[in-house]
Design a protein that fits this description.
By secondary structure, the chain is mainly α. The protein is 65% helix and 0% strand. The chain has ten helices and no strands. The structure holds magnesium ion.
Length: 184
Amino acid sequence: MDEGKNIVHSDVVTAATKDALIRRGVKIQDIAKIVYELQVPYNKGLSLEQCIDSVESVLRKRELQHAILVGVELDEMAERGQLSQPLQQIVESDEGLFGVDETIALGAVYTYGSIAVTTFGHLDKNKVGIINELDTKKGIGIHTFLDDLVASVAACAASRIAHRTRDLQEAGLTFKDVQNGKGS
Ligand code: MG
């Protein structure tokens, strides 16, 4: 028996994750902008391009991909009124005490360590940029899960950069040097 027969190829999952974000109105650049704002105070030479690369890298992780696919599916089902009651009403109204959206997003953050966890907490509280736009209570559509998932991706990408910064410092380099082709 072919043991790999029922396994979905990671390329398929990666593509589905990116499609889900785009379909829901989230561009990689939107997430990268949050990462840039978080990390530029500590990295003078940091560019938006490097933040985009970091987001892309995070989106290749299965932990994040699976969380995004589950969360987006639930948001979309809620928009179509396909969840059973009372869950439909709870997700639709993004009820304050419903914490499963945060729990799924937080679970995916652990891969990137304590900086990612604390950054996620910050973004969850102080919704910025696209996260604020997605807040179900403020706009059209249901993004109960998506706002937390975007915060999760941004927190992970910011953590990656923080760790990379230290590696560069120890090598006597900055992100600007990497941009200019030094030390890579
Ligand atoms: Mg939420």
